[in-house]
Amino acid sequence: MEHERARTPASVGEPEVPGRVPLAVVVVDDRGVISHWSTGARRLFGPARAEAVGRPAIELMPVFGAFGDRGWEAGLRGDTAGHATTGRASRGPGPGGAACDVLWWAYPLVGPGSGWLLVLATGTDALGATEEDARHVVPGTARHTELSGSARLAAGLPEILPSMSPQESARVVAQVLELGYPVLELNRQERVPVTPDWGVPRRAGRRLRARAAADAAPAAPVPDGAGAPGDTAADTAAPDLEHVAVRERLEFLNGVSGRIGSSLDLARTIEEVSAAVVPRFTDVAGTYLREQVVAGEGFPDGVPDTSTVWHRVALEHTDAPGRWDDVVPVGETMAFPAETPFFRCMTTGEPVLVPHIDEAMGHAIASQFEKRDIRPLITDRSMLVVPLMARRVVLGFMILLRHRGRAEFNDMDRVTGAELAARAGLVLDNARMYTHQENVADTLQDSMLPRIAPRMPGCDTATRYLPGTRLGRVGGDWFDTIRLPGSRTALVVGDVMGHGLNSAAMMGQLRTAVQTMAGLDLEPAQLLRNLDDLARRLGDTHLATCQYAVYDPIGSRLRIANAGHLPPVLVRAADGRSELLALPTGAPIGVGGVAFETAEFAVEPGDRLVMCTDGLVEVRGQDIGAGLAALCESAAHPAASMDDACDTIIRTLATATATERGGRRDDVALLMTRLNGIGGRDVAVHDLAADHRAPGRARALVRGQLARWGAPGVTDTAELLVSELVTNAVRHARTARVELRLVRTDVLLCEVSDEDPAPPRLLGPEPEADAGRGLHVVGQLAGRWGTSPTARGKTVWCESALERP
Predict the structure, then answer these.
(1) CB of 385 within 8 A of CB of 402?
(2) Which CATH number among 3.30.450.40, 3.20.20.10, 3.40.50.620, 3.40.440.10 corresponds to the domain 260-440?
(3) Which of 12, 7, 10, 20 is closest to 407 using CA atoms?
């Protein structure tokens, strides 16, 4: 492939652009033999492709420094290995009869097989400079990121490489950029990149040269049957030129198709579309999308009108930096007036061509926009507005502008622009649909995962949830913390087998069921048994593992039941030792007919409990024990905070498992709890005789305890609540003793326990009755209240705000 500067007559008006020169591209294999010889190489050095390919490169090119001082093999494997070399050499009379200097760049590259050399070269006579000025131009290399438009330079580099697969081209480009981008050094401070020559000027130059050659050729009769009598070579040249123009446009469209749609990210797709057309097809490209498309919402309905809101999402141009930013900034939201080419394009769905915007038209278009003057940006330019459509709906449009020095847009460009917009519209619609589905998945997942408070009575928690893949962000993993009576906390982790919406829906039902049954204060094993029955009634299409634990911070006890889930890790605060808790495995939820067991463990304040789903530790093809061992080790690592500890586990386990399975593919739910406990000084327990004096004694005990805790501001409310609960127990419970317990956490917990298992009933009191209002008073004054069964009866409890000293 060659990189060639089009030479056009001055009447065409094409400006001279530094750094765009005819470029010879030669590939030399590991034997020093030429394997690729471009048309530019033939023009620079003389031999045709058939003569050059297969011959030693050192015989045809005066670029001896590229091959090293000791010949080809030494140059590639020694002197030049690992860096690019450049140089300048004298060439004798070339194909045109004139002598010139050759500027060359050589890149030793490494491929799947042996090493090879890429040589780029040009003659000083192609620089368009005087002989004196050309002497000061030398070839060099630079990091492409040091040059303006670095992304565009990197994207254009494949255009000057030999034909190869996209993977091979990407590999070669990466090596060339690492070794140094080719530049022309005019002096020590000024460097000009050698850039590809794009688009219409190149084609126009070819056409003019071919037309001039055809006009200069003598008329010759056409062989019989080849055309009409009297046809000449000049007459038959036009179809060939037209064929070349169509072929170049097809190559351009194919190239654009290959460069856009590399991802389903909407923002990146927009950038790719803009970069694909500037500067090859146009000098300015502004992209506008409808509000629903940018927001990732559903498909926009109806034909756009003057009230339709559009977002300017990209603006790519070759003008001086900042020229467009103040007048038409990216990110602006606006509606377009009716009397504009833009409105006609968006409502008809057809390209709108304005070959030349004169001053009158520029003023007419600019007058439709308030508080801005766009005339300097559009006047004296050629404009093409193309719709971005999908399924016959306009998603957006692109405004394309060409400078005065470039050929105006014509009907063929309009066809090309329409095809370009159709392909870009399809890619944008795919990205829009993916963004919409991703938003739906995120919303669904967020709605199903709980908002867990970092602090609970007697414990602190931290959580992490990671989706398995970006294409399956909704999964069946979940965690939860549930506040229970007695300052206890239920800790839940579960995993519905499978992925997608069905698993997420099942997860939502199971999580709701666990929250409901936890309020009944069931034993962990009984709760899992009830959950298993519910799952079987919902259907047999899904199974789930689940772990349900209840932490009692006052008794420092942990009770856990397991349904086919991974064992949790307990990290002891005393010595930092971590261990997997030995639990009965149990069967997954949904199997049915399997009994569950509750295991009890003694814990100490400061111990940490780590519960997770198997996506964190499972390594495909390996024993899960390796992942559990890594979990134990990482959980024991000291950390400054609970969040830091979670991040350490995620990072460590990702490193330990990604190498084996090529990255995480399953969802991850992680719940870490620090078991702080509630000390004895924050708990007061009193045993009262169940007689008419009990409410008074209870009020006195509450008053004295709150005074010792330094919270006298809540004494009156607390006394009233305790008095009502004790009175209710004395009057209605068949018991001889009543136990009063006060617990100080972030709230004041008052518990009254008796030996009657019958729960209290909230009745509607008669208007004239003098009793039956006790629980109504409790419901009005307490933040929460309820009842829970005990081994010997029941406990009625309530919580109220507590002023901390």
Answers:
(1) no
(2) 3.30.450.40
(3) 12
* Beta strands, E only, 475-595: 475-484, 488-499, 544-552, 557-563, 569-571, 578-580
Q: E strands, 415-506, where?
A: 455-456, 459-466, 475-484, 488-499
pLDDT tens-digit readout, 460-510: 999 998 876 554 556 788 999 999 988 999 999 999 987 777 788 888 889
The 8 Å CB, 24+ separation contacts for 215-218 are: none
* 62-to-57, 102, 351, 403 alpha-carbon distances in Å: 9, 8, 51, 40
Map tokens 């309905």 to a residue: 301
CB 462 within 8 A of CB 672: yes
Q: 711-717 contacts: CB < 8 A, separation 24 or more?
A: 711/744, 711/748, 711/802, 711/803, 711/804, 711/805, 713/803, 714/748, 714/800, 714/801, 714/802, 714/803, 717/781, 717/800
Q: Closest Cα partner for 617 from 607, 634, 606, 630?
A: 630
- Measure the CA angle with vertex 665, ends 661 and 666; round to 5°: 125
Residues 134-145 pLDDT 10s: 777 888 888 888
DSSP label of 79: I
Q: At 771, list the tokens.
A: 């009793």
The torsion angles phi and psi of 2, rounded to 5 degrees, stand at: -115, 155
Q: 753: closest CA among 511, 528, 485, 516?
A: 485
Question: Using only C-alpha atoms, what is the Rg of the chain?
Answer: 40
Distance between CA 386 and CA 353 in Å, rounded?
A: 9
Q: Tell me the CATH number for domain 680-801.
A: 3.30.565.10
> Which homologous superfamily is 10-197 in?
PAS domain (3.30.450.20)
Alpha-helix residue ranges (DSSP H) falling in 567-693:
624-635, 642-661
Does domain 449-675 sit in CATH 3.40.50.720? no
Task: Read off the pTM.
Answer: 0.55
DSSP secondary structure code for residue 752 in this structure = E
DSSP for residue 589: B
